[in-house]
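Title: Prediction job returns without error message
Component: structure pipeline
Severity: low
Priority: P3
Assignee: unassigned

Description:
Job completed but the reporter wants confirmation the result is attached to the right record. Sequence as submitted:
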Amino acid sequence: MAEQGWTTGTARADGGSRNFKLWTPETLEPGRAYPLVMMLHGCTHDAVDMADISGINQIAEANRFLVVYPEQSRLANLMKCWNWFHPKHQRRGAGEPSILAAVVDSVCSVHNIDSDRIYVAGVSAGGAMASILAATYPDLFAAAAMFAGTEFKAATSAREGFAVMKQGGPDPISHGELAFEAMREGLVRKKRRRMPVIVFHGTADSRVNPVNADQTIEQWRKTNACLAAVQSEVGFALTEKVIDGKIPSGYSYRQHIYAEFDGRVLMEKWLVDGLEHAWSGSPRASKYGDAKGPNASAEIWRFFSETGSHSTSSSSSPHPAGPKIE
């Protein structure tokens, strides 16, 4: 049986090395392969901060999956931000993407991980890096979650990065094509039918403009259309359903659900009214966690578990079982 609770490690790749912390639930059974979720923290934070803000370790205990938390080094970024805005950290086999892929490999070398159920989620700078990882390593990650993040390759310098945070990024359609091109090497290693994506953002976020949520969805809509086209699928289109909700004594929200022609959910966008630059549904209120919103960690895991299983092309059916909307 794998060691339970917190363990630590270091992963090395051509782009350098980073430390990470791994959470292994007590509820795991020997001999079974379990999912893995990579959580990417925001600026100034570390693994424990991310775990405390998101509360996802509790979700992992209840649903039996492992959570790995890579940690950015102050030597790489003084504010401990992932360098999502720098070109050398936007490519497969280089920079931070190569290191984060090595983190996954390191965990898989020690633990019994289901290679078809590995996911990535991130907040702020970590959300922007999650977009990059979904594009550059589609053979590793079955789905992605971006909380207050950006579209793929939204900036190519620190100056552009600040502009994106303030006013949004470049044309998401053209960057959807760029993301698809970035996926090609990974797709040779493992075919992927789609890349499911879930996005969270607060409407009162003054640090990262909420327009980035819309752009992230549009970028991945185009990327998924490219994936459909390369597989000779015709007529790719998504329908949109909007569900309004409210947390008792908390925030209202709008859940946008994007489904394919057969009703299978491919993407979701959650906009939380009044939420600032903080994790929604955090177990405790803090500067970067707000308990008054919907539980983002629970919804992200629900989305991963429902959609990741039908994102690959390895199933016997071109449209394997998955969640549907009517």
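Comment from assignee: result matches the submitted record. Residues 184 and 197 are 18 Å apart (CA to CA).
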